[in-house]
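Supplementary Text 2. Reproducibility record for the structural model of the 60-residue chain.

All settings were left at their defaults, and a single model was retained for analysis rather than an ensemble. We include the record here because the model underlies the residue-level annotations in Supplementary Table 4.
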Amino acid sequence: MNEIKVDIPHCYLWMTDGYHDRDKLFKEYVQGYIQCYYPHLEYKKISGMKAICERRQNNG
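Retained model, structure tokens:
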């Protein structure tokens, strides 16, 4: 696996603070961030304050 690590914006910590299902909301924010700013990457997981991604396969 060719991992690409993307820094997660720190503001997502305080933006999700106090939310009843913080882990889910944080993950949704990270997935949206990757889709918007790194459309060539596919989100896989979170490790610390890094989103672990892979390059999208070209299917064309």
